[in-house]
Hints:
Oligomer: single chain
CATH topology: Rossmann fold
Strand order of the largest sheet: 3-4-5-7-6-8-9-10-11-12
CATH superfamily: Alpha/Beta hydrolase fold, catalytic domain
Helix content: 25-40%
Radius of gyration: 26 Å
Low-confidence stretches: 1-20, 511-528
Strand content: 5-15%
Structural class: alpha/beta
Amino acid sequence: MKKIVAIAAAAGVVVGGVVVAPTVLAAPKPAPAQVAYDPAPIAWGKCEQPGLDRRGAQCGMLEVPLDYAAPTGKKIKLAVSRIKAKAPAEQYQGVVLVNPGGPGGSGLTLSVLGEYVPKDAGLTYDWIGFDPRGVGSSEPSLSCDHTYAGYNRPYYVPVTSQLEQTWLDRSKKYADACKAAGGDLLDHMKTTDSVNDMDALRKALGQEQINFYGFSYGTYLGQVYATLFPERVRRMVLDGNVDPRKVWYDANIQQDLAFDRNIKIYFDWLAKHDSVYHLGTSGKSIEAKFYLEQQKLRRTPAGGVIGPDELTDIFQQAAYYIFGWEDVATAYSAWINNGDFAGLKGLYDGANSQEPGSDNGFAVYLGVQCTDVQWPKSWNFWRVDNWLTFLRAPFLTWGNAWFNAPCLYWGAKAGKPVKVDGTKAPGILLISETLDAATPFEGSLELRSRFPKSALIEGVGGTTHSGTLFGNSCVDDQIADYLATGKLPARVAGRKSDAQCDPLPQPTPSAGLARVQSKDGGSDLTRAELQKEIGR
């Protein structure tokens, strides 16, 4: 008997004649991944931007390591803004970080985004805008040559070897200027650096998790954050989704084809409204005239400043989204029908300032894209790809190639992109219009497949890039429901969208030409100004 009890006691505990099995302690659950850096709290104060100040926003600086592999080493500062929740404390749902894209877009003023969410669903969050490293009000802010986007530049299409060499020389000169201006910052501008910054910001805000709203390149920030720190994600809205398979050279080739398709859609719209703009009744004839006018501008730039490249850059906005279609049409019509180039110049200047520091967005764009992944090192590789693409898509191909060509000479070592994997992430909301040119729809389908708990809303047939919270109630109301409760559209089988909406509608111009408005310098952040900040 004693022997039996002894054996039983070795296996458990005898209590009142009953053998109780020992408690088996489960292995402790690993702590959620987080950045290995503890930032100081942000000292909040008054915002200098009138639009933020009027809304009662707070602004401050977040100190982060230049290099997260050496967290006690050199520090840089990120500019941050906050508009606090306006709902009762018991309804508080945490913070929403916002990124407008680019890379290189300033997000400091985007803490206002919450006021555009329908049904007051944004009021239960603190909305956090920030300028990523190197951007805008962050310190240091990267600028290399503010005159680079000057007037009447060499013709984009390298129809002669001299033109090709001129653009290669320009690209190398800009890359060299960035190496001189950026110093050791250039080695630490990858998407992974900004993702680490986001997690440091989460810590500084005292949050266990973040919510995130990303547009365009901001969707890639969200993808990588959710891959590296999945348990730190609460809710996430991604609008205009980067295809994680095409970072970044292949993405630009794919864009060229999509922008060419969309500019034809715009030319068809101009033809539909010939009674207003008097540019022709056929999209094909308007397109042919556009290219003819480009050749004329090679010989005689409009007003001595608007050459063929500048005309492409102006029209590119119409291929991005329907916002501004009337402004471009008005300016182009005034030039074609009356010889008045002021509207074209105003549109170009509004998007291409030549003031000191104005190349900041371009410089940071290159700083990220040139180092996220190694671009082809052989110019001949680029040459063949772009000529083949140009034969199918002449509108943007060479302009886009030269935009990225400084990556050939970039003064920082490239890394390897993170393999995006959303299997551990919670349910996130994806949005795209079917004919988005900047981030083609196939990227949203790919992302949906990698995030098995996600749902995708499609603006069927639309051409607008990153256009949420601009009045499409079918889309925006579902965003509001998701932010309010976490509710996603029901996921369907197959490689397709889960919910469908009509896209943002093409504008219907009133009789008479619309007035062209130039950017006023951002004295306040109106809905129109907000649109200009998003999805670049």
